[in-house]
Write a structure and sequence with these properties.
TolC-like; transmembrane; 2 domains; cell outer membrane; Outer membrane efflux proteins (OEP); 8 strands; membrane; OMP_efflux
Length: 442
Amino acid sequence: MNVLMLTVALATHATPIRLEDARARSRENVQALTAVLEASSAEQDVRIARSSLLPQVRFSGSGNLTYIGPQRSYNIVPVEGGGFQQLAVDTPEVAFPNLSLGVSVSQLLYDRAVWARLEQSGAQLEAQRGEALEQQDTSELEGINRFYALFRSQAAIQVLEANVRRSEQQLERARALFQAGRVGKAEELSAQVNLGNDRIAVVSRQSQLATDQARLTTWLAMPGAEVVEAVDPGVLTQTPAPAPSLEQALQEARTRRPLLVALRKRLRAAELQRSIATAGYLPRFSLDAAYQRQGQDPEIFFGQPSRQNVVRGGVSISWDIFNGFTTQAQARRAEYQTRAAELNMQQSEREMEGTVRQSHVALEAQIVSAELAEANRKAAADALVLAEERFNAGVSSTLEVRDAQLKLTQAELTLLENRINVEIARFTLMRAMGTLAPGEAK
């Protein structure tokens, strides 16, 4: 099987994957969905915290039958002349029902801890949502990297295949010149060896292609054995757009990076924990009401609703006058946790600024490298044309043509690598700025 047949066989029935598809699927892969589920769980925590502020209504009902068998009891009674004696009393068996029905309602009037806990759960929910967006951005960037890794392998194989075709043409020229008596047999053999080495390079690159395909499919939650093909995003034929200013990138990151939003909400939740702790210094008020109906006669219980009724209601107050300094200790602990959250947020802001600057410098450097690589490719292409003309004229050897071929191939691979690195660096900067998915980041 020659190189062309192997390439066609590997590409047969390949599922095309566009860059937009890879980005969208990455935001819905296992890691991203797990983060979304955690945010949904935090949303239920808000509902649980809110439930304490709503009326608590409870219904209870029971019905049972009590059976007492024949009994003998003794009563002590006085007798004439003084003294006492035991008098036996026999009672027959008896059975009687016991019916009960009740409804109770309680309503919290004031408890500072409950209100603070509700606000805290809301802050934790927003923090969890921010972390979910952060994970989605992380998953999307990884999907972009894996997409471009596959596209790089595909494009590199095309470059190597083009080099194989150039080697085939060089072998034909060397063979024709040898048959014409203008060059020796060594030139033809050298060209044949070069062609074999170039074909080996193409075959060797196919294993890397399969690795990149598997890494992309598994990340996108697709069958790992499925053969995919990265659709050309068109970046190789486009001039790289300039990088945004560093000031603009930093400003965007401060306002739109989901991680910073989540950390600010975590800090707010820590501050509210102190409010929850200090609520122990304040009283708690609640309103209670209950209705109960109980009796042993079913006819009265079910037939006379005006009887056997008990209704009660009242306002209760609860105040921890002294609890062994527990409230004070909890408040102090909450202050320490708030300070720790504040320090963590400040450090994350500094790290974010460093990441943005690093990504910004990397993007600018990659753009310059891509421009230099394009100039090198043009020079290498001109050098190959000159070497082929000299070989056809019989004034150079296959070695000179081979050297020009290798330099052109290396220049094309370098240009490919740098041009793809420009796009990866651009998406990395967008990830650091929090603008990878503008609609969702808002």
